[in-house]
Design goal:
- By secondary structure, the chain is mainly β.
- 0% of the residues lie in helices and 46% in strands.
- The protein has no helices and 12 strands.
- The chain has a 6-stranded mixed beta sheet, with no helix packed on it. Strands 2-12-11-8-4-5 form a 6-stranded antiparallel beta sheet, with no helix packed on it.
- The protein is globular.
Length: 165
């Protein structure tokens, strides 16, 4: 595994163990990308750390543009990067630094000003290893007027981490 592996294309609701994709899964970079015909489409990315009860342990477990990084390094919103067709938000996730009582890491985004995700094109989430090799990808469509979307989640299972699209 590791370099030279092929990227896994995911469908909605599917899941995969990160160890099946690479030996380098202690940290990953989640990338949310989209394009907009008008060029002005945007969304705010957020990350939530959830305990076994499915809830955040406190306000500190909610990461967004005004609270972009965890003190322990487990979550770091890396900001927007222009792409050929639009923009991409990158999120660094250090799974080895994630507190033991965090069961799930949810990657979401929201739109504002009455705009829905259906106004954006090529909505996609990819997970890459720290070296930039893409491990998996998930194309999101049929969002219509939805203003908040969960793109995916990482969750603990049998001593490892899995991803659910």
């Amino acid at each position: 595994m590791g370099s030279g592996g092929c990227m896994r294309e995911m469908g909605k609701g599917s899941n995969v163990g990160l160890a099946e994709l690479s030996s380098q899964t202690g940290a990953v970079v989640a990338r949310l990308g989209w394009s907009s015909a008008s060029g002005d489409g945007d969304a705010d990315v957020s990350v939530l750390l959830l305990g076994a009860d499915g809830k955040v342990r406190g306000d500190a477990d909610f990461y967004f543009y005004n609270h972009p990084a965890a003190d322990d390094g487990s979550v770091q919103l890396l900001g927007k990067t222009p792409t050929d067709s639009g923009s991409e938000d990158r999120i660094g996730l250090d799974l080895t630094a994630t507190p033991a009582d965090v069961e799930r890491i949810v990657v979401a985004a929201s739109r504002y000003g009455g705009a829905g995700f259906g106004d954006l094109e090529d909505l996609r989430l990819t997970l890459a290893d720290p070296g930039g090799e893409e491990l998996l990808g998930f194309s999101v469509d049929g969002m219509g007027e939805m203003r908040a979307v969960i793109f995916g989640e990482l969750y603990r299972r049998d001593g490892g981490w899995k991803f659910r699209a």
